[in-house]
Structure formats: C-alpha cells, structure tokens
C-alpha cells in the first residue's frame, strides 16, 4: 500500500488559530462552521466548531489532489469532545453528490455513548474523483447534531488490489417495473436454489417455495401479490446470477410493499441472503395493511457469495400474504 497524500503534513504547516484559507481544507454547509488549528499532545489537529446544523463540517476538495484513481482509499480519523452527552450520534464521510440530506453515506461511525475516537474510510469510485469529500454528522445524530469535531488525520493511499477493480457503469442495475421478464397475469416458476443450473436458467425474479404469485398493474407500475403461503420461506427470490453484478462493487437493494390484511403481533418482513438465510433488514409489522420499506447494501463479499436475496416473512406471521410494489437495485460505489 502506497500513501499518496498525508494531510497531516498540511496541518503542520498551518498556524495555530482560525484557518483563513486553504486549498485542501474548506468549511462546508449552508452556514459555514469555523475551522481552527489546535495543538493536542504536541500534534496539530483541525477543530470544526460553531456548527449550525449536522451538514456543516469539513470539506476536502479531491480536485486539489492530482493523479487520484478509482480504487484509491481516503481515510479520516478524529475525535469528539469528551463531554459529548451520551446518546445516539455519529460522524459520516460523504461525497458532494451523496450529501446525507437525501442520499447514502459513504462511510459512517455511529455510537450510542460518548466514545471519543472515530475513523472513516471510503474507496473512491470514478464519479468521486472531482468531487468534494465532506465530514459531517450523520442523520442519526439527532441528540448531538452540532457537536464539535476534531480531525486528526486525512490520508489518501493506493492498493493495486482495489485499483484493478472494474467499476460498474450502471446506476440502476434492476427495476421490477421495467423488468420485461415479468408480465401482468403471469405466475413465475419456482426454482430450487440448490440446483444451480436450474436457478441460473430462471428469471430475475422467481418464486421461493410454492406460494401463489400474481403480477398485475397498479396504475402505471407493476405489483406482485404473494399469497397461499405455508412455509416461512414461501416468498420471492431476486436471482443475483441474472443481475451480472461486478465484483468489488457495492449495491443497494430497496423493496417497498405492504402486508395484506391483519398480521399477527411479532410478524417480521425480511430480506434474506441465500445461501445462509441471514436476516439482512427487517421491519416489525404490527398493524393492518402496514406498508414496509426494506433496504440493504451488499458489500463485495456478498456480491460474490450470494446467489439470491429473498423477500419473505417470519415468526408469528410466517404465512401472511403481502404485496411488493417495487424492487430496485442500484450501484452505490466500490468495495
């Protein structure tokens, strides 16, 4: 691994006190915080203070760091004041176009007690290279959204293992609404996930177990109705072999639907990774006709290992019928 840029060296050239101008460190947010240099344990650190809201923070313009490649890693370490009250808080590393107001964090450190240290790391994708990387509070930091941040180090390094990865050029990898393999009125065939040949020959969406599955139009969009369920694995599988996902890329899956009728208390609607039947994202269903939204981001190991993602219910409501209104899978970065 080779260090490309170590911004600690930049810190050392700055005078103690407020930062008035720097090409590599800029205040960001609707109301800019104050950046200042302090010496802690004989080492210079950058304090981000007077933050008006959680999106106010420190920015690192990647365009000021020449010769970056997709696959390079940026790592930020820092601290919060020891007197930070206990409660949910976190720090996020986001890009200019994935501002945490409305999109996904690159990487976050989240705590429920006042741990002092945090470390954030992100593998840069091609779209990041001329953007602004920002350190700010996460959307979950409702208790302490404007706490001070100390940035101790910012390092950019290169590992050829990552720079050899091919970045998926697709933004939307799969959308149920535009899937031409599913047509209204059809009932999808069931496939045994243990038979790899049969599984790979199936469509992008297939039945798990033997439920009754109907496809119909709801307005201008497709919808699935999954009923006559007997086992808790009776549901819908997203066939990952047919999606042609790229190794080393990260993908987010989002499933939106609704329970049909009344679900017993304790019912869980869930995404499961196959093989392993691991619960990846779930939501307690407690009322009649309750809607649900399931999200999960697949890391590079899961992209390579999983053959399917299953949507089903478990526990007390293992056989309840449900609707799926949309399934979308999008690329969200590398590794």
CATH top level class name of the largest domain: Mainly Beta
Structural class: mainly beta
Low-confidence stretches: 193-197
> Any idea of the CATH topology of the largest domain?
Jelly Rolls
Number of helices: 4
Gross CATH architecture of the largest domain: Sandwich
* Mass-distribution shape: elongated
Structure summary, number of beta strands: 23
Instruction: Provide mean pLDDT, rounded.
Output: 82
End-to-end CA span: 16 Å
> Quick one: biggest sheet?
7 strands, antiparallel
- Rg over CA atoms, rounded to whole Å, is 23 Å
Helix content: under 10%
Strand content: over 45%
The CATH homologous superfamily of the largest domain is called Galactose-binding domain-like
Give a short synopsis of this structure.
The protein has 335 residues and is mainly β.
Write the layout of secondary structure elements.
Layout: E1 2-6, H1 8-13, E2 17-18, E3 26-28, E4 34-40, E5 43-49, E6 57-61, E7 73-79, E8 89-95, E9 107-111, E10 117-123, E11 132-137, E12 149-158, H2 160-163, E13 172-175, H3 196-201, E14 205-208, E15 212-218, E16 221-227, E17 235-239, E18 249-259, E19 267-274, E20 278-285, E21 291-298, H4 300-305, E22 308-314, E23 322-334
Antiparallel strand pairs: 1-12, 2-4, 3-6, 4-5, 5-12, 6-11, 7-10, 7-12, 8-9, 8-11, 13-23, 14-17, 15-16, 16-23, 17-22, 18-21, 18-23, 19-20, 19-22
Structural features:
335 residues, Jelly Rolls, six-stranded antiparallel beta sheet, 2 domains, mainly beta
Q: What would you note in describing this structure?
A:
With 335 residues, the chain is mostly beta strands. The strands form four sheets. Strands 1, 2, 4, 5, 7, 10 and 12 form a seven-stranded antiparallel sheet that branches. Strands 13, 15, 16, 18, 21 and 23 form a six-stranded antiparallel sheet that branches. Strands 3-6-11-8-9 form a five-stranded antiparallel sheet, with no helix packed on it. It has helices spanning 8-13, 160-163, 196-201, 300-305, and strands at 2-6, 17-18, 26-28, 34-40, 43-49, 57-61, 73-79, 89-95, 107-111, 117-123, 132-137, 149-158, 172-175, 205-208, 212-218, 221-227, 235-239, 249-259, 267-274, 278-285, 291-298, 308-314, 322-334. It folds into two domains: 2-163, Galactose-binding domain-like (Jelly Rolls), CATH 2.60.120.260; 172-334, Galactose-binding domain-like (Jelly Rolls, Sandwich). The model is unreliable at 193-197 (pLDDT under 50). A hairpin with a 2-residue loop joins β4 (34-40) and β5.
